[in-house]
Amino acid sequence: MELFAAMQRDDYEELLFCQDQASGLKAIIAIHDTTLGPALGGTRMWTYASEEAAIVDALRLAKGMTYKNAVAGLNLGGGKTVIIGDPKKDKNEAMFRAFGRYIQGLNGRYITAEDVGTTEEDMDIIHQETDYVTGISATYGSSGNPSPATAFGVYQGMKAAAKVAFGSDSLAGKTVAVQGVGNVSFTLCKYLHEEGAQLIVTDINKEAVARAVEAYGAKAVDPADILSVACDIYAPCALGATINDESLPLLKAKVVAGAANNQLKEPRHGDALHAKGIVYAPDYVINAGGVINVADELNGYNKERAYKKIAKIYGSITRVLEISQANGIPAYAAADRLAEERIALLRTSRSTFLRNEHHAISRR
Length: 364
Known about the structure:
Number of strands: 12
Strand content: 5-15%
């Protein structure tokens, strides 16, 4: 893999490799863009097939955070960390303390939070070495686990997408197929159940499926069948790339709206959704509730204020779909346009300011 070529392709600022032999830490921090502010993005721990796969994931996720934070209206850039290892077997205190020291060494350019494979408790350990971490325990005056906030945002975005697809944002009586029943989607299922939606769920974790069946009367199906079930809304809430060449012919849903990152395997799969008339709520717009919530910690956390901001995801999805319809472009492209326009505007404004400052100094 040609690292600089990969970084130049999407204009990444920094790629940092971190290792601590004593604890087993092998981490990759990717910083994509800090035009809007310090890079904020979670730490994922996963058993990657190769080091190259881990690098690719870090880069993709970091760019996604740049766009997510931009569309969410946050004054934050995008970054991400991946730790190579099994989160069930390889974690230890020394690992996260060592990682915290690496974050501290970046002096605020990157702020982390929890992600797949990491927990609030892990963030508390990182916090022993650095203040540049969010999603830590409420005992520290912070917001804690961001999963409920992410779920609330996905729920709001799903309602906005439903209004475009069905003429009403009511989810009562709608059948929602939920792929993955982790912390975020279990809370999402609660919102959907309380509004009267019918749930079809799947997960490789049978205990998680059983919990949703018992709590919300969901129907369980095999993971291989979730994409082809008859439903109104498909909610991808596991890992990414489930919208692909194999799944597209199977989809019966009119809406795709879920919590997973990188739901489109390639941009052309978003083109295919658009061509099929399926309303797509772009992943980094609809699942921004968690990052909006933890970003509020940077101002001294206030839950009511944070959730008011998260509720605006309804309007963000509405705006993206309006741009999509008005310009005849796929929803993912409309979301990218919103993000890129905001970043470009600030970059131009900053360049103009610096140029004027330089001229003023030169005249002195």
